[in-house]
Design a protein that fits this description.
It is a single chain. This protein is mainly alpha-helical and about 190 residues long. The protein has a 3-stranded antiparallel beta sheet. The two termini are about 35 Å apart. The chain is elongated, with a radius of gyration of 22 Å. It has helices at about 1-20, 25-35, 40-65, 70-80, 95, 105-115, 140-160, 165-190, and strands spanning about 85-90, 120-125, 130-135. Helix 4 packs across helix 6 (about 105-115) and helix 4 (about 70-80) crosses helix 7. It has 3 domains: about 1-65; about 70-150, Winged helix-like DNA-binding domain superfamily/Winged helix DNA-binding domain (Arc Repressor Mutant, subunit A, Orthogonal Bundle); about 165-190.
């Protein structure tokens, strides 16, 4: 039984390496060193690890062209996504962010930085003076829309070879993966 499993993994590894070309010759080397490892699992893990920095380097160039940091981009896009009047209570910013922060101090720093650039305003909530509302300025709204447009152009370049069906499948699979990772994180914490 172990021989059949090892033989099957070797075939899968060869197929993955051949289909994916030379940049992933690391995959066949894994089989030689650790034949007990699931080749599909290691292929997925390796690609995820490589995708993050690859995407971030392209994204960093986009953001630099706009004079933004990833943190400020995340803030103004979150406010844009909230819809008109493009404002949120300060306490809601972290959960609304794509990259949520675990401390309020980190979000305060983001808001301070964006405010210095003239992208957001802060005001006390008329209904609850203890609460602060953060809103996009006209400049912030324009820049947030440009930021989204440039991100969508970047994504279109990356996914240019994908059909709409491929994109939908990828989005669903990534969502399932994120849910699994979040569930695993909760189990590790508890």
């Amino acid at each position: 039984m172990q021989r059949k499993t090892a033989a099957k993994r070797k075939v899968v590894t060869r197929r993955l390496s051949r289909r994916d070309g030379a940049p992933e010759s690391w995959l066949s080397r894994w089989y030689a060193v650790r034949p007990d490892i699931d080749p599909l699992g290691i292929a997925i893990l390796g690609r995820i690890i490589r995708l993050g920095p690859a995407f971030e380097s392209h994204r960093a160039a986009v953001l630099a062209s706009l004079g933004l940091t990833p943190e400020i981009s995340d803030l103004i896009i979150s406010l844009l996504r909230s819809g008109p009047p493009h404002e949120l209570p300060a306490g809601s910013l972290s959960p609304e962010s794509t990259f949520p922060l675990s401390t309020s101090g980190g979000m305060t720093y983001r808001v301070d930085s964006a405010e210095k650039l003239g992208l957001v305003n802060r005001r006390h909530d008329d209904r609850d003076r203890r609460s602060v509302i953060v809103s996009l300025t006209k400049k912030g709204l324009d820049l947030a829309n440009r930021d989204v447009d440039m991100h969508m152009e970047l994504v279109a370049r990356f996914l240019g070879e994908f059909s709409n069906g491929d994109r939908s499948t990828l989005a669903q699979l990534l969502q399932r993966l994120l849910k699994g990772l979040e569930a695993a994180s909760i189990r590790l914490i508890c």
